Amino acid sequence: MPSTASPRVSSLSRQNRGPAAAADNRRALIAAAREVYAEGGLGAPFSAVAKRAGVGQGSLYRHFPDRTALAVAVFEDNVRGLEDDTAPADRTIDDLLDLVVEQAVVSTAFIELITADLRDPRVAGLGARFHDLVARVVERDRDAGRIGGHVETEDVTMATGMLATELARSDPAQRPAVAARARALFRAAFAPR
């Protein structure tokens, strides 16, 4: 005897996996947030993230009660990527700046939000991790003679922040040229004397 259940209802019940879907939903929300805020900036509705991820508003708020929580999750992934990519001994400040350029172009809306909430403890932890990875790269470059002894971790941290902020403010078509100009300035400032 054929089923009388609506195909739509049965497919919906298969889609709702409840708590088992939590990790997948979180990943989908983070990916959607990157896209939504890259396209629409911080003014994009928070609800657009849930819609793009294909999850309900309740799931969005369970995982991320506010925009800062969502931004921290996105930047947690970015910092983890920076840590992994700068870990090999042959990675340099130039490699770090390349990565910052890649992330800034994709996540421009988040830069503004994160820099506005520097006192938020969720943001401070990411800042400390970023500082630590920059310190490792600076020490490595200094030891290899690629940068001068005058270059401090805070100089490179400031340079990455300046670069990311300038890219966020630039017209997307101009970002490669802006990044190249900034990189040339940093190379000259960091060079051994």
TrEMBL record:
It holds the Pfam family TetR_N. Keywords: DNA-binding, Transcription, Transcription regulation. InterPro entries: Homeodomain-like_sf (IPR009057), HTH-type_TetR-like_transc_reg (IPR050109), HTH_TetR (IPR001647). PROSITE patterns: HTH_TETR_2. Residues 1-20 are annotated as: Disordered. Residues 1-16 have a biased composition (Polar residues). Residues 23-82 form the HTH tetR-type domain. The keyword Zinc does not apply. One of its GO terms (molecular function) is transcription cis-regulatory region binding. Residues 45-64 bind DNA. This is TetR/AcrR family transcriptional regulator. It comes from Microbacterium allomyrinae.
